[in-house]
């Protein structure tokens, strides 16, 4: 797919700001992550989803992370349920309200948390909700690939270089990634972003924009942005009847839309802050970068 056709496709799915919609239609996004050590990641993912254009973001985190995340922004709806005794039962009813879910930002690697998230993935699968998996969510998936087998909804995995190598080792080489599942897209992040999936039509590479700065949090900005675009790309479709190729294309274009947006934010922030740039500086440029790429 060439750049111009993908950008035009993205533009055609962006909901218009014409006053015809109600709160929530532009996206209700879920972020499953946030732990004692990691509170910034779910914030970056959630606030980026909002600033790209989602209406509401729900963060499901451990109780130790909730107050901290709430203090970062009043825009995020924070649920301190991830470490509750009945976490799966407490969280599952909320999932029905969500259009797309990101698992992983700030999740941590506690065994009990992984047990809860494994059950939530099964629930997400049964509810046919588009899913983005990043960070420690990828660590969990790589340990048990069966968790994402036979998903009917689109699934996007967003590994960095190390996570990608770990995933490839698990499946016996990158050439085998397309056997993960026909609705699964792997978005390899790096100096050049690249898509791996079963559909050749949906594959692309891009090194547009960006900088040499590799501060933490950029992947979280990306995963939240992908979630909003993924909702837009699938909101007017019958997710149960979309063909695997259509789902792969929707996922791939969502990744491309977020990739060039976040890389442009990186480029703009780096131009001002240079070596001192951090992920929060990039968020300031989401609106400007979005307008330049996609208009209002």
TrEMBL record:
Keywords, ordered alphabetically: ATP-binding, Kinase, Lyase, NAD, NADP, Nucleotide-binding, Phosphoprotein, Transferase
EC id: 4.2.1.93
InterPro entries named among the record's database cross-references: Carbohydrate_kinase_pred_CS, CARKD, Ribokinase-like
Catalytic activity, as annotated: (6S)-NADHX + ATP = ADP + phosphate + NADH + H(+); (6S)-NADPHX + ATP = ADP + phosphate + NADPH + H(+)
Binding-site positions, ATP: 189-193, 210-219
Annotated PANTHER family: ATP-DEPENDENT (S)-NAD(P)H-HYDRATE DEHYDRATASE, ATP-DEPENDENT (S)-NAD(P)H-HYDRATE DEHYDRATASE FAMILY MEMBER
Protein name: ATP-dependent (S)-NAD(P)H-hydrate dehydratase
